[in-house]
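**User:**
Make up any protein.

**Assistant:**
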Amino acid sequence: MTLTLITGANKGLGFETARRLIGLGHTVYIGARDAAKGQEAADSLGARFVQLDVTDQQSVDAAARHLRENEGSLDVLINNAGIAGDHIAPPDATADDVRHVFDTNVFGLVRVTHSFLPLLQESDTPVIVNVTSGMGSFAVTMDPARFESTLQSVAYSPSKTAVTMMTTQYAKSLPGIRINAVDPGYTGTDLNSFRGTQTVEQGTDAIVRLATIGQDGPTGTFQDAAGTVPW
């Protein structure tokens, strides 16, 4: 049995990832801030639910204790929870605007990874997938041929750059765990008011691929559905 935890999984990419991994035989925990919505999502998929607010250390620690007491280990952690923040022109953004996005997208990832690392280290084939974005790539956002180059953000985009860099640092320091960053692509979810051009199934292709690798799989990479994403 492969035990998987997905943060922010009551909707969008997280929910679709859970659906697909359950179909592949994983036992999946839906992590969500809202207990009612999270339990409803878990029930609809045949998953398990754990309340988990990535911005609240006590909530994260309680979720880790729940899995420790009920499962004893964790095979796959998918750090999916994230927010776009308000659409504010870069000159108008304040430190508080940026801090709000980083608290979920970056510090939330650190809270969850730190708290669940002991459980992952109990697994024979531990895997971490960090959901980042092409919006965090220097090369992609400066390429006039790419849609991402038309967008401006001093909160969301830099937060995803941080997620990608943190992935490489975790991967170097934890060689026993396969740790990779994934760009889902421009997928229609409430994060972008459903303006994305991909379906959630298309958007989860790379997430599912990297969540199901073995110990001979890659680590410290930045990938999307087509392969390697330039830094």
Summary: The CA atoms of residues 46 and 76 lie 18 Å apart. The first helix runs from residue 12 to 23. The first strand starts at residue 2 and ends at 7.
